[in-house]
Specification:
The protein is of the alpha/beta class and about 260 residues long. The chain has two domains: about 170 residues, Vaccinia Virus protein VP39 (Rossmann fold); about 60 residues. Helix content is about 30%, strand content about 30%. The protein is built from seven helices and twelve strands. Helix 3 links the parallel strand 1 and strand 2. Helix 1 crosses helix 4. It is globular and about 55 Å long.
């Protein structure tokens, strides 16, 4: 692994680093996958995942026998998505190299749309948020559903109550190699914005710098307003992927909404 002494590296290299280590930074216990598959089985296909990343969810849905369109704009991530889709592309998984805000798919009869792994939070302005939801609404059939996973202010306060710089250890499930992730966060409560900078240190003390990111968090009231403005009706809200009902102290907000008939 290459030693990087500072953060003044190219955007392309940052994006490539993020794609390589995405599976480490997005480690789940597969509860979210089981959660999404429950709704896919209930509502049918086709499915679209918005911001599919390396295909962790989309590929699993396809391997379960369901047709899925994986929308992803990042070039480095697309390369990993294609690699992970071997044997499934293009008959079960369709890879769509498009920006969500400019998305134009070949069909408008999707049964399920998924913003997993807090992807919806990359949209910082209400204009972007509404545009993304309008795009999804257009491509869903009547009665189709959208599932959105975001974190709430309770999650931010839990992080913000700690030191602004902190670290934790993760283990690569593929290689067994241990990494320590160092994070620096900046929180702006006025605009509901969280900025994070991360870098990983491996067992041999070499370092990889990852791109910083800015995301917006939402309350249930915020999401209800956005969904109503884009012709969606909320049909269920959860606090976790084990189907725990929503409560006001929740750190996670998982919304299932239906396109209005």
């Amino acid at each position: 692994m290459k030693k990087i002494l500072n953060t003044s590296i190219s955007t392309e290299e940052l994006e490539r680093n993020y794609a390589v280590f995405y599976h480490l930074l997005s480690q789940y216990d597969d509860m979210d996958v089981k959660f999404y598959l429950h709704f896919v089985r209930e509502h049918g296909t086709p499915v679209m995942e918005l911001g599919a990343g390396d295909g962790r969810l989309a590929v699993t849905i396809a391997r379960s026998g369901f047709e899925v369109y994986a929308v992803e704009r990042d070039t480095a991530m697309l390369l990993r998505l294609f690699k992970n889709s071997v044997g499934l592309y293009p008959h079960l998984i369709k890879i769509i190299p498009q920006d969500i805000l400019k998305m134009s798919l070949e069909r408008a009869d999707f049964s399920v749309a998924i913003f997993a792994n807090r992807t919806f939070q990359i949209f910082k302005t209400q204009e972007e948020q509404l545009s993304a939801l309008h795009k999804v609404n257009y491509h869903l059939k009547r009665g189709g559903i959208i599932i959105i996973d975001v974190f709430t202010e309770n999650f931010v306060k839990a992080i913000d109550s700690k030191e602004k710089e902190f670290s934790h250890e993760i283990v690569d499930p593929i290689t067994g190699m241990k990494f320590r992730v160092f994070s620096t966060i900046i929180v702006d409560y006025a605009v509901k914005n969280l900025r994070a900078i991360k870098h990983l240190v491996s067992q041999d003390n070499s370092t990889e710098i990852l791109p910083g990111f800015e995301i917006t968090w939402f309350s249930l009231q915020d999401m209800t307003s956005l969904l109503e403005k884009t012709q969606f009706k909320i049909i269920n809200v959860f606090s976790d992927f084990d189907f725990t009902p929503y409560h006001h102290k929740t750190k996670e907000l998982i919304i299932v909404a239906q396109k209005k008939l």
